[in-house]
């Protein structure tokens, strides 16, 4: 037996969020393909979907992953009938899910090899917990279950495709241990999967994340493997197709074998996914969005609520467009591909810049320069204050005496020499002021030093942020950033030149477009 596909059914961005789940159930229950249908959700696709949808609504978990779709395939020479295949699917699903999730399975006999499709809900029936498949789940949980079920029904153990190594779970464990001993760490595949998980912070992305997203997009929009390769070339990749598929992103020096991107991205797995997508309806509007757009929406809403007359200026609007274009870089249609893919790697910085401009109400380039200059002046003043405080701390005799006196006083045991020194220091301090007052004076100086250091760090961070905003402004002026809705571009300006005053009619039109877009953002 071979579990050839482990697929997550994603939430649709438009229409019914669980529409993909309904489509998958209808596909596997197609009477032209299915010989046997069963499961605890029922044998009718519409009834099964209604059961799963009702469960999601009950637990108020209609977003995120809608469900999961697993496919169990048997080799052509395997002597298995539809009834046994159904029993395998039931036992496999029962042991994997423990009866906590609604599922439907269907045995397909329309190809030269028998295979079983299993579609199950992502929300548990008993407590509403979402199904989670962590790193290493295939090897640690799914593969052992498959091997046990196969053994129960006298079927061959789990096998991989030709590009994989055919080993049972015990052999996989032994090989993994040998790799650890040889290389002093986990195997390469595990390393890349770990990096993938580490990079899955929702708002921070790596080149590997972008490559995976590009491949996912190309698979969804390619009817064949050849068209998939052409699609990747249209995205700026240099494609090398041989035993392995290697892709070199535009702007990168070296190509990457796709199998290094994680499970589901080897050449054979990509071909299988393309073939699978051909049989499933695809929502053309279901595209990948980057960044946390809701945070900016909330900020705009609060700003408008505090002052109903508040509107973004053209200066602020240019940053909003740059950020929004990057978030929606995969939007299909004529407005797609505006902006550079590498901008996604700096998306968190773009978001921080935009939020800073709105919170601080920096409404023009002149405001930006003034804020930047004021931060520098304030930092220098605090640095001067810090220098004065440190002079009193480290060059004042009383401060040195108090620090040494406290050091000796806190010792659990002191030598006779230290006892004598402690007594002499106490007398010196008492001649200047009471010891309690001297200790308070020293503590106040330490607090002033700490406060100055904190202020300097904050001001330096502010200056870096303002410098980053200025750098982004220059880049946008060179690239003529366009509005994702209207397609209009901001005026490019040479460094040092004055910003031209727009004509009144153009300004009125721009204000109208700004109003419409803001209303869309805060809805």
Automatic annotation (TrEMBL):
Residues 183-196, 485-523 have a biased composition (Basic and acidic residues). Transmembrane segments: none annotated. It holds the Pfam family Relaxase. Residues 27-155 form the MobA/VirD2-like nuclease domain. Coiled coil: none annotated. Residues 175-196, 475-523 are annotated as: Disordered. InterPro entries: Endonuclease_MobA/VirD2. It comes from the Bacteria. This is Relaxase/mobilization nuclease domain-containing protein.
């Amino acid at each position: 037996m071979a579990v050839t596909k482990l697929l997550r059914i994603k939430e649709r961005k438009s229409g019914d969020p669980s529409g993909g789940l309904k489509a998958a159930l209808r596909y596997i229950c197609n009477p032209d393909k299915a010989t046997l249908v069963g499961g605890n959700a029922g044998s009718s696709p519409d009834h099964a979907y209604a059961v799963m949808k009702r469960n999601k609504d009950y637990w108020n978990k209609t977003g995120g992953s809608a469900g999961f779709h697993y496919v169990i395939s048997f080799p052509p020479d395997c002597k298995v009938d539809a009834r046994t295949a159904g029993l395998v699917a039931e036992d496999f699903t029962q042991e994997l899910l423990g009866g906590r999730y609604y599922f439907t399975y269907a045995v397909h006999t329309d190809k030269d090899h028998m295979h079983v499709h299993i579609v199950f809900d992502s929300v548990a029936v008993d407590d509403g917990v979402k199904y989670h498949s962590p790193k290493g789940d295939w090897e640690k949980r799914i593969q052992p279950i498959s091997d046990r079920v196969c053994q129960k029904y006298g079927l061959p153990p789990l096998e991989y495709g030709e590009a994989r190594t055919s080993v049972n779970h015990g052999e996989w464990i032994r090989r993994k241990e040998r790799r650890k001993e040889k290389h002093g760490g986990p195997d390469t595949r595990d390393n890349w999967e770990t990096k993938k998980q580490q990079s899955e912070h929702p708002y921070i992305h790596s080149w590997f994340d972008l490559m995976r997203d590009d491949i996912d997009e190309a698979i969804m929009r390619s009817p064949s493997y050849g068209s998939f390769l052409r699609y990747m070339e249209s995205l700026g990749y240099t494609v090398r197709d041989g035993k392995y598929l290697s892709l070199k992103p535009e702007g990168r020096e070296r190509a990457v074998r796709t199998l290094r991107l994680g499970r589901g991205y080897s050449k054979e797995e990509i071909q299988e996914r393309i073939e699978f997508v051909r049989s499933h309806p695809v929502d053309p509007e279901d595209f990948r969005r980057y960044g946390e757009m809701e945070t900016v929406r909330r900020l705009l809403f609060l700003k408008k609520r505090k002052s109903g007359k508040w509107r973004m200026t053209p200066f602020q609007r240019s940053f909003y467009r740059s950020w929004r274009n990057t978030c929606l870089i995969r939007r299909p249609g004529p407005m797609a591909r505006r902006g550079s893919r590498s901008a996604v790697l700096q998306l968190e910085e773009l978001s921080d810049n935009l939020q800073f401009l709105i919170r601080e109400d920096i409404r023009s380039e002149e405001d930006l320069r003034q804020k930047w200059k004021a931060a520098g002046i304030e930092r220098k003043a605090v640095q001067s204050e810090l220098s004065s405080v440190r002079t009193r701390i480290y060059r004042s005799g009383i401060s040195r005496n108090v620090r040494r006196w406290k050091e000796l006083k806190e010792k659990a045991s002191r030598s006779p020499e230290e006892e004598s020194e402690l007594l002499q220091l106490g007398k010196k301090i008492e001649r200047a002021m009471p010891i309690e007052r001297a200790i308070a004076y020293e503590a106040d100086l330490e607090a002033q030093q700490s406060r100055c250091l904190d202020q300097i760090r904050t001001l330096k961070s502010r200056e870096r942020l303002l410098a980053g905003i200025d750098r982004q402004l220059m880049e946008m002026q060179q690239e003529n950033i366009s509005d994702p809705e209207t397609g209009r571009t901001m005026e490019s300006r040479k460094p040092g030149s004055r910003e031209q005053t727009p004509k009144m009619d153009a300004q009125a039109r721009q204000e109208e477009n700004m109003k419409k877009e803001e209303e869309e953002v805060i809805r």
